[in-house]
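Below is a complete specimen:
___
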Amino acid sequence: MKHCIFVFFLALIGCISFGQAPILVQESKIEGATRIRDVIYGYKSGMALTMDVLKPARPNGIGVVYLLSGGWRSDHSMIEKRLRHFKYFTDRGQTVFLIIHGSVPKFLINEVIQDVHRAVRFVRYHATDYGVDPNRLGVSGMSSGGHLSLSIGTGLGKLSLSTISNDPVDQVSSQVQAVACFFPPTDLVNYGSPELLFVEQEHLKRYHPAFAVDTKTREEKRKVMQELSPIYAISKQMPPILLLHGTQDTIVPLEQSQRFIARVKEQGVPAQLIIHQGGEHGWPETWESDLNLLADWFEKYLLGSK
């Protein structure tokens, strides 16, 4: 009996080791794929950061890092609510990593961005364990998940490897090779109108605590907004970008995607904006046929890329 307990304890240690693939996993079959639950990709304030992995029956090497986020909040109910929709990726052989990140207001947005960089590094480090090519990674999400996707795509908030831990996961890159996401905030300094800060929008007041700038001067607020805006991190080194946005979105103005895509194209980077006439902050096809557009984008830019 003591021997069994000792073996279990060693296995548990292996499960929570950052640099090694988990030993103890919960696997279940879903339509056309295997679901691996609660894979720990990091720790934060004594809590585990987890992801679920959806591994298709015939992986084609593409890995889709999907950031489950709304209002910079994330929880496991988002996985259960939307699980069936990810078949649009797995049916094509794309392995999906469903990322749960630390949520506001406990963690601020700059801290959440570090979570998603960590998640991508973990996926790259363990890519071959899941039948994925580490150089064929795409990232996606909706709303704040789109903002975080573009933060990854532009390298916004990426820390130098010399400033983070000696954990082997943190010694690999968080760069992705394609981005495809929905209605992302991109410029928190000019939000809907020139020089109108995100935190000056009364109808968005419920999101303001995520920035913790209430007591700051306007110039200090502006600096924080700029530091958290992917549009100011655009470069020629970015991966191809696909954005989908509705014309009637009152949470994230359409101009956020229009100006972002225009600037990306100026850098000579492949980019496309698909506009949904009458679309609000989400529309009926968002979780249905439009996911196929994302899967198309990943196939176009990730299959055969090295």
